[in-house]
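WARN retry 2 of 3 for item q-0093 after timeout on previous attempt; input resubmitted unchanged.
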Amino acid sequence: MTTASRDLAGLVARLADLAPGLRVESGPGATGPYAYDASNYRVPPRAVVFPRTAEDVVGVVRACREAGVPVTARGGGTSMAGNAVGPGVVLDFSRYMNRVLDIDVAARTARVEAGVVLDTLRSAAALHGLDFGPDPSSHSRCTLGGMIGNDACGNRSVRDGRTSGHVVALEIVTADGVRAVADRRGLHPVDPREGASVARLEADLRRLVGENLALIRTELGRIPRQVSGYQLHHLLPENGFDVARALVGSEGSCAVVTAATVRLVATAQASTLLTLGYDDVVAAAEDVPEILRFSPSAVEGMDEAIVATMRARRGPDSVTGLPEGHAWLYVELEGDDPAEVNARAAALLDALKALGRLTGGRVVESPAERRSLWRVREDGAGLAARLVDGGESWPGWEDAAVAPENLAAYLRRFRKLLAAHQLTGVLYGHFGAGCVHVRIDFDMVTDTGRAVMRQFLTEAAALVVEHGGTLSGEHGDGRARSELLGVMYSHRMIAAFAAFKEVFDPDGLLNPGVIVDPAPLDADLALRELPLVETTFGFPHDEDGFAGAVRRCVGVGRCRSDAGGVMCPSYRATGEENDSTRGRARMLQEMVRGETVTQGWRSTEVRDALDLCLSCKACSSDCPVGVDMATYKAEFLHQHYKGRVRPRSHYSLGWLPLTSALAGYAARPVNALLRGPFGTLLARLGGVTTQRRIPAFASRRALRKTLRAAKPAEPAKALLFVDSFTRAFRPQVAGAASRVLADAGIPCTPQDGLCCGLTWVSTGQLSVARQIMARTVTALDNGDTRPIIVAEPSCAAALKRDVPELLGTEAAQRVAGRVRTFTGALTDLADQGWTPPPLPATVVLQTHCHEYATFTDRRPADLLRRLGVDTVDEAEGCCGLAGNFGFEAEHYDTSLAVADLALTPRLDQLDGRPVVADGFSCATQIDHLAGDQDIRALHLAELLDPAPDQPGETT
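OK item q-0093 returned
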């Protein structure tokens, strides 16, 4: 055992003594994801702990103080400045200390634990007509502790300002392990027996402030977004010695916050959104002072690169409601009287038109358009990280702020500075508060590139100071900007900051390297030159292949959201960082680096991190940077098990298209056999759960009869691809699809006997998958250019995306270009006047994840509404079965936990409504969840079938 291992073992043992029952993780498989946040930095911790109580935190701090080990507090891990990574013990508050403890409606306050997600607080407050004002774009996963650490603001900071303005009191643990409460009157011990320690701390603070009154008054609190450094002005006599607000923005470097009491605000009764177009961001910034005269709640800006990336990734309809222009402002107006708000909006538009800089402007009336537009803005950091042209950009100077009236002049000079260093920046942010986020195409791999970055950041710091601004407006200084504080502040103020930290943390163990005694801004950078990794998938959209693909994850953490979109079902079920898309991507990055994860493709740590990935592909659409974990997992499994015995389910489920084809020749006896003890034994031998009923195989006779009936009476306009699942388990879907398509003016020729290779892809048997796909492409790329319509969404997605990326041939691309889902075919190809049979007023819909991710602009819900269904109650999320995943014995419980997130609650409240699920796995999961209830999921083709109940299709 090495000295480091012995030291770590001793620390873990001491943690167990001082915090009994505390969960401590120290292996590379657990700590790897915590080496990163959303910044440019990588700092591997020794251990990660998951406290449940403030007393757990006391034990951790005391144990680390004894051992001289640094402590870093962490919430959602979305810091862009590197303030949520550290070399010692990381405290993850988000896992367990994540509750809203109390809401006092009369006082309009809430008491929350540090790990509570902002949206959780907002949802609880909304029940009382209240809200928490600051609303960062990461509101679905950022925690209040992190917001307090950074002094976060958000999209509506014009109205609500910074987090510090909403903090009433902080419950903290000091560096020597003492619990105290910081509020507007000072510091107070939680345990009276520790009163002397807390009193000494307060006395030292008062002495520090008294010695620096003039300095603090002249250098701090000059502009609304001055977050850089420590906020010592809140300790001035005229400000009431507010220790709580002084600690906000200290980035965990002075005390560990365990809980907070925060002020809530009333929810506005009326609001409207204007979108304003400009030629560039400077022109947009010129109009900000005029806009502020109309008392907006939000003034947000972005440039065209973000919008182009969103449209490329999620379809042209993903961004609607923007006027002509190359840069845009969102202006939100709120009030109690809708008429007054609308009148103010009209007056604002008139005033801006008179100024002459607008290229267009409109009031956005549609709630759906508003949601779409805000999502573009909220995903700005991720969308700007990996642009439509494949370019990469990074934080580092993403948070500077000036007074709003100085914004245009600053941006004009800033863009010249970028050009002088031959850099490109993507700009977005809080224009109304003078805070502009920018991601820049820094080269952090080569020595030359790092030197350019350092020089640029130094000059940018001088530029923002010249314009009366601040290095950080809400993200904190962190590792990215702390070294530059000397450009902004005098030597005396830097000394005062150091003295402030020393009062709280004399040993320098709380989040070291941040604000005081900073690490160099180019130390611990995560990017470095890596060898090319040989893979089977081509990863054509990533310049560095697999290494570039996994580098897509920049840590913004949308995969840690528990609502909205589908990503990430396993994280939503377990709440574990390692089960998030981000956690898995970080482990793959560690594998490629080869430092802490040293076994490469044979790594068991990476295998375990990928184990609960359902391969749903939702991340490829929902993740702002387009991480495709299903593909990465398939590649890993292929490489990991190359030349080795695989898990049994890879054989039993991965080869299902072959075995099911054979079973069709003797379907009745096979089905009877599988229903008895032999079926149970076979399932166990194949690694398949015995808690599910194996779906019944359809006979070849039923398939032949269906296909004969499906041949069109008129010239076919398309091919109906009869996939392996439809062929083996529900040939009636092929019959219904053929009839519906013919009725809609799209007669089809059925194409049987081919396979997309999906099951071999999802189990990582890529060599076999390529053979299967090559045969299919050869058969389909025969000069025929007609659309290929696929009733099974997962197979359509495989043909559309996996086949060209795995084969990499022009023929595969041609085939992929012809593929349509059943929904897509009816949306794009149906006769103009086609009317389906009468439809129910309401349906419950489960969209297959692969269809959601791959065919983003052709959704079944939209088609159903267009065809006349009044209410589509969509179970937004994965069904949980996810092909082979939910059939694997070790994944059964997780499969049901995922279903419980959205699907099961809708089935429990079905009330006779039909259920539509095009995906075979979705329909199978619904059948399993229904149990003895008379519920059967319909394929959309069955719902629309003009001649249902055809005899002989299922036997």
